[in-house]
Amino acid sequence: MRYLILCTASAAVLVLAASCGDDDGGTGPSGGGAGDSVYYPLAVGNTWEYDRNGTYNVDSIEYTISGEATVEITGTATHSQGWDVFVEVSTVNDTISGYTTSSAVCTVYVWQDEDGTYGCPHLTDTDSCWTVPFPLAAGNTWTYATQPPTTGEVLSMDVDVNVPAGTFEECAEIQTVWLEGGNVTNTTDYAENVGMVRNVFTQEAGVYNSTVDMTLESYQVQ
Prior knowledge:
Structural class: mainly beta
Largest sheet: 12 strands, antiparallel
CATH topology: YmcC-like fold
Distance between the termini: 36 Å
Strand content: over 45%
CATH architecture: Beta Barrel
Order of helices and strands: HEEEEEEEEEEEE
């Protein structure tokens, strides 16, 4: 349960880091893509720092969560089927109620083409484990992944978000919902030429319930 909180809430692209679906991820080169690729800028060296705050409830006992996360594109690699991908590493460090410290490191491989943004946890995966199709438009829905069953939806294309790194206007807000060990919702705001500026993760799984709000503290994007 603790790993689920840390890893799946660390960034939107890590929602399904441990599972693969059946969606075709395309074979286009990494980077570039359609105009909507500006919401998820891919370049080696791009780095995002986030604050994390939330609560973790176990059988009606509430624990506070505070922490930080770093998402960095550390390099490139070649998929086993021949296309180039970016290597994205997320590191999460949380303190729960001031005395329990937990950490997690997740690696995913990300690429884009004219049809969307894709990702998978292994270079040998034959299908994209998650996908965000282009064009982005409010109301668009799709199958984000099949295992666990996950749906995606563009909630809005004009959300204004105020976070420690500043105020970002006309953000794309995307929500993913999946069922595995409970109801899980990820609502993520992306700013043009910046990337993810906020992510709100919620989970309801019997006596376990959690909410983590991750906000952009600083970033370096080429």
